[in-house]
Design a protein that fits this description.
Strands 2-14-13-17-15-16 form a six-stranded mixed beta sheet, sandwiched between helices. Strands 1-11-10-9-12 form a five-stranded parallel beta sheet, with helices on both faces. It is of the alpha/beta class. The protein starts with a strand and ends with a helix. It is globular. It binds iron/sulfur cluster (2 copies). One iron/sulfur cluster (SF4) binds next to helix 12 and helix 13.
Length: 440
């Protein structure tokens, strides 16, 4: 059922969408890399612990680490071959993280554990959740929060609405758009599994209206499930942020410092829903994902990539760089992470790789604050970014905390809009880091 209303939230910005380069590019499966680098931490929470040793032979889908606690997930081999080493390796966050490095045997043998269960919908919610946990699923929209934890709200928090996030509001990225077009049935099934686990009768799929083909396809496939509605959202960044999406779709406001479950909602990304289907119907772990490769490469594409594939392999497959990139980003230009090594692996939260030329990276010439108030006007969290960043500049962490720095969702709208080119979001992120460090 399509709800024709077009909805949105207060604040936000309209950066150039730049989706035209890849939105019509069908997903291509990239050839297997010669090696994969699988960080033992690709999720929020405790790192996983390796359960394989150097020299072990593995098949794609075999577990190679176990969860380090409840808020943690295991990792799996994404190719078949030999474990060459377990050592610290560069991670998208910029640090070296213990990682399992597997050299391919070129045969792509698949784990014997992966089998189809046509009767998967008759499993209990608890059985489904265990399969999701075992599959190592962490939020694939980029937040990488362990999915089984999100699906385990405390009993006193009554969930009545599950939201499927198909907004994909970051410029350039089209991986979710293509997934919604090409794997629609699996996503809807995954959504139904999530709804069954949470025992919820109301499911809403929110998609920005710059993806009319995805809206139509999701509407067609979900039409036989009256409990699911598809809602077209206004195009505005950050429409896909959880609190903004919940407000746009339900008009419920998640209180400061609280989680969506406070207002009876849980949000899952469309890629996560597809992974949930694979885990529950096939016992298939999360070993690959869709990645948009855009910017200054010869061929911009949407690729199906094994987790752990080095960035260089994606660039080679896309015909190499066109010119020399000034900046390489994992994710989109608003919230993505700058990368410094082409040996950085694709991880579970990698939705895109963006390479920007000199002329696409704005020269940062910062001036003093003009007191124009634009950052305050557009902040989707109703914060005062100029004030918080000012406290950060003078290391006034308590004042930054009192100004609700921890509520910042790091969307980058304030930095984007600031005419003085002040690096507001970087300063606020640092303030958050210091506040959290002080509270330990
Ligand atoms: S203060 Fe945080 S939430 Fe507000 S616009 Fe800046 S980055 Fe976004
Ligand atoms: S947008 Fe920039 S210049 Fe304007 S008030 Fe905010 S920090 Fe100051």
């Amino acid at each position: 059922m399509l709800t024709a209303l077009k909805r949105s939230f207060k604040g936000g910005v309209h950066p150039p969408e730049n989706k035209k380069y890849t939105e019509s590019k069908a997903i291509e499966e990239i050839p297997l890399p010669e090696k994969v680098i699988i960080p033992l931490q690709q999720h929020i929470g405790k790192p996983s612990k390796a359960i394989v040793e150097k020299g072990a032979e593995v098949k794609a889908g075999d577990p190679i680490s176990e969860a380090g606690g409840f808020v943690s997930v295991p990792c799996h081999a994404s190719i078949s071959g030999t474990v060459k080493s377990i050592e610290p390796h560069i991670h998208p966050l910029g640090e070296k993280i213990p990682s399992v490095i597997i050299e391919s045997n070129g045969e792509d043998q698949i784990s014997d554990n992966i089998t189809f269960n046509s009767d998967y919908m008759s499993l209990s919610g608890e059985e489904m959740k265990n399969l999701i946990y075992g599959a190592g699923i962490a939020g694939m929209g980029g937040a990488t929060f362990p999915t089984h934890v999100k699906l385990s709200p405390p009993p006193e928090k009554k969930i009545n609405t599950v939201i499927l996030n198909g907004a994909e509001c970051e410029p350039y990225l089209t991986s979710d758009h293509r997934l919604m077009l090409e794997n629609t049935e699996e996503i809807i099934e995954g959504f139904r599994i999530i709804m069954k686990i949470l025992d919820v009768k109301r499911g809403i799929i929110g998609i920005e209206n710059n993806k009319p083909d995805s809206i139509k396809k999701m509407e067609d496939i979900s039409a036989k499930f009256p409990e699911i509605s598809v809602v077209s959202l206004n195009v505005k960044y950050p429409q896909g942020a959880e609190k903004q999406l919940i407000y746009a779709l339900t008009k419920r406001k998640v209180p400061a410092g609280k989680l969506p479950m406070e207002v009876g909602c849980i949000v899952q990304n469309v890629g996560t829903a597809k992974a949930v289907y694979d885990a529950v119907a096939y016992k298939r772990p999360l070993i690959d994902r869709i990645v948009t490769v855009a910017g200054c490469v010869t061929y911009q594409k949407n690729l199906k990539v094994r987790i752990g594939t080095p960035l260089q392999h994606l660039i080679d497959y896309c015909g190499g760089f066109e010119g020399s990139p000034k900046k390489i980003i994992m994710g989109g230009p608003m919230m993505g992470l700058a990368l410094h090594s082409l040996d950085t692996p694709v991880i579970k939260g990698t939705s895109g790789i963006l390479m920007l030329r000199d002329d696409q990276v704005s020269a940062v010439k910062t001036t003093a604050c003009l007191n124009c108030g634009k950052c305050v006007e557009i902040c989707p969290m109703n914060l005062m970014p100029n004030i918080i960043a000012g406290f950060a500049k003078y290391e006034r962490w308590d004042d930054a905390k009192d100004a609700f720095a921890l509520d910042c969702i790091e969307c980058g709208c304030c930095s984007y809009i600031c005419p003085a080119k002040i690096t507001l979001v970087q300063n606020i992120k640092y303030a958050k880091f210091k506040i959290m460090e002080d509270s330990k």
